[in-house]
Amino acid sequence: MSDLKAIVIKGIAPIMLKPEKCSEQADEVLYGMTLEVLKNDNQWLYIKTHYGYEGYIEKAHLMIDEKGIWEGIDKHFIIAGFADVMTEPRYSAGRMLTIPRGSYAALAEEEEEQWIKLLLPTGDTGWVRKEALLKRENHIGTALRQAIVDTALLYLGTQYRWGGKSPEGIDCSGLSSMAYMLNGIVIPRDSDDQMNYMKKVERRKSKPGDLLFFPGHVALYIGEDKFVHATGASAGVTINSLNKDSKLYRKDLDEKYICTGTVL
């Protein structure tokens, strides 16, 4: 295990399978995430995320955190699709950067009306609207399941992007992993790994917040035979059904259903 840590300082930074810009994108990391540096190679770093995913990322998207200061700071998630970080607590101020849902930021313990001051990993401070931050709630049971569903539904209409996991573009396992991560549960990044990680339950016992698995695909069950998923067939995040009588029915997925997984 490496002691060298790096912090993502770009809103959305791609992780590649190879240290090449034209390589296939495997994943994305978001602003403020801490990465473990496994290999340092010219303009690329080979890294490992906090959820165990490995790949190559350009150095320009990162800041080395040699003292591990950022990792030890209490952080909050951005829940707004995108949040502008401003130099002052007003819309007419200078915009420092824009960060997407799932980004990490620390509180600088200063507020002004509907604005709150953030401490950024670079050491700078900036202001965002209070509603851009996720309110921490310790959901359990049915409430936690509904919170996971509600989080996944925030991505409705987002375009499909292979290896994506932000409101700019997302894939099926990116959607399921972010719905869980934003509710305090870390699961593997890819659908096959998610399926192997989760406890299996019978299809008829599927509950909101559980994951439905198909060959190379995963969807999040929202109840009443319906599920939300990111699918190339619809070019984005949409709701479909396993009910043959529904206009939202996906026969191809119904016939290829493998299992339901839960960690709740």
List the helices and strands in order.
EEEEEEEEEEEEEHEEHHEEEEEHE
Number of separate helices: 4
For the CA atoms, what is the radius of gyration? 19 Å
What summary fits the major beta sheet?
6 strands, antiparallel
Q: Tell me the name of the CATH class of the largest domain.
A: Alpha Beta
CATH superfamily of the largest domain: endopeptidase domain like (from Nostoc punctiforme)
Question: Which architecture name of the largest domain does CATH use?
Answer: Alpha-Beta Complex
Shape: globular
**How far from one another are the termini?**
30 Å
Identify the strand order in the major beta sheet: 16-21-17-18-19-20
Domain count: 3
Helix coverage percent of residues? Answer: 10-25%
Structural class label: mainly beta
Number of strands: 21
What value does the average pLDDT take?
95
Binned strand content? 35-45%
Question: How is this structure best summarized?
Answer:
With 264 residues, the chain is mostly beta strands. Helix content is 14%, strand content 39%. It starts with a strand and ends with a strand.
Account of the protein in words:
The chain folds into 3 domains: 5-71, SH3 type barrels (Roll); 73-132, SH3 Domains (SH3 type barrels, Roll); 141-262, endopeptidase domain like (from Nostoc punctiforme) (endopeptidase fold (from Nostoc punctiforme)), CATH 3.90.1720.10. The longest helix has 13 residues, at 141-153. The protein is mainly β and 264 residues long. Helix content is 14%, strand content 39%. It contains 4 helices and 21 strands.
